[in-house]
Amino acid sequence: MIANMAALGAALCWAAGGLIAIGPVRVLGSIAFNRVRLTIVATALLVATTLMGGWQTLDTGSALTLALSGLLGIVVGDMALFWSLSRLGPRRNVVIYAANAPLTALLAYALLGEALGPWTILGVALVTLGVMLAVALRSGSTHSWEAIQGSLLAGVSVCLLAAVGQAAGSIIAKPVMAAGADPIASAAVRVTTAALMFTAIGVLSAVRSGAAVTSGGEAGVGLGGLLVPSGLTPKLMLQIAGNGLLGVGLGMTLLLVGLAHGNAGVVATLSALSPVLILPMMWLLTGQRPALGAWVGAAVAVAGVALIVNR
Description:
single chain, globular
């Protein structure tokens, strides 16, 4: 039950964080947004872990394992997800990315020996199907965002790569969490690794784009923009911090709590419910009721959750 509640809590954090992120992402772009928010969250988690003494639960091997988990789950997963988002549009992207839940279950069975009972398997299938239906049938929009840009096969393949990255990140972290690693310390290692990688990617991008390097070793506009991206205002900074601390900080910590206490496939499935949980939030904020098909998908997902929780 602890694992189930933690996974559902993570999904709720990601749903709420997603709404907060809309404005900053549109202004800054996904890469700069991710870099700023991960830096904020990494700093907060590092301070919290130090104050709470969580480092004592990690040895060098565990820290390296968690760093690899963050590299695959956050860096590779997020970069692939945002790349495919620009090609497929948000609805198709989320529908395909929902495959990360059954992929995690399959990897957990193959690599960790975590078998699922028949009712739990049915529950996982219903939740995944429900999430896909809730997103796919959310509206009949013909907005430009829904247009396919470039190769459909490339977009689908990269989105599946994002799902595999997320699933692999969870599977790699699972043994460390099950061994008693502190969730906040573990999240600190994963997020700090991702923040450093996104910063390194930004530096390489600035250098490759021909940013002017000063005698002091700073790449003018390029490297300056890494610290303070163009368009960043105090209001946007607060929104980014809120998204990061809620979605990444608390959400990831809850996900790791779930992995420490439960089956990786079940935790991944329940934490993937954010597209369903966001429906009533969007209705409340925008006043626009989601289409009937979205509620049908949500009902299917809820039925799957009931099977999992009461198995």
